[in-house]
Design a protein that fits this description.
Distance between the termini: 37 Å
Largest sheet: 4 strands, mixed
Order of helices and strands: HEEEHHEEEEHHHH
Helix content: 25-40%
Radius of gyration: 18 Å
Number of strands: 7
Number of domains: 2
Shape: elongated
CATH architecture of the largest domain: 3-Layer(aba) Sandwich
CATH topology of the largest domain: Endonuclease, Chain A
Structural class: alpha+beta
Strand order of the largest sheet: 1-2-3-4
CATH class of the largest domain: Alpha Beta
Length: 182
């Protein structure tokens, strides 16, 4: 049963369009979109208000950057599509006034306190070497050396937003893990 008013409105919209849909399909990298349309292999995230968009921006940004093969469409309850684009590893959303907007002061709106020690903690927990992490990232389309992983691990350099999202996916954790609340 759909309890969210925005999701209920969008479900009615899909039904009127005679499109078969699934509510809350399987998770994608710890993220569960609102709807899935099997005929087009498209996931939909319903955004009822601007505040909802800002509240959900972390998970939306993470899935867009870390899973480029997944077709994710942001929609209003009426079915109107919310345009977005990726620019320099940032996800920009088109506002009702036609301007492109980003979140927060940094690239993905997660705060500026990146905790590089989490990489080492996750590697220890999983028993992975820097080479193992590098190899895993290569299978996900990110070509980085084990020396780069070492630099990220000791805080000499920081991964960009796109690489951090994929790194989180490789470890099987949410990107917020690298931005702990203090």
């Amino acid at each position: 049963m759909i309890s969210n008013k925005g999701e209920a409105s969008f479900a009615k919209y899909l039904t009127r369009q005679r499109v078969p849909w699934i509510h809350h399909p399987e998770r994608i990298n710890r993220y569960q979109p609102d709807f899935f349309v099997p005929s087009t292999k498209t996931y939909y995230e319903v955004i009822g208000t601007r505040q909802a968009l800002h509240q959900n921006h972390r998970r939306i940004t993470c899935i867009i950057l870390s899973q480029p093969s997944v077709k994710l469409i942001l929609v209003r309850p009426s079915g109107q599509i919310i345009p977005y684009r990726i620019e320099r590893n940032e996800v920009l959303f088109k506002t009702p006034t036609g301007r492109w907007s980003r979140f927060g002061k940094n690239r993905i709106g997660l705060g500026s306190r990146y905790d590089y020690t989490q990489i080492g903690k996750l590697q220890e927990f999983l028993g992975w070497s820097n080479q193992d992490v590098s190899d895993k990232l290569k299978t996900m389309g990110v070509d980085v050396s084990d020396q780069t992983i070492s630099n990220w691990r000791n805080g000499t350099t920081n991964p960009g937003a796109d690489k951090l999202a994929i790194l989180a996916a490789a470890f099987g954790v949410a990107i917020e893990r690298f931005y702990p609340e203090k």
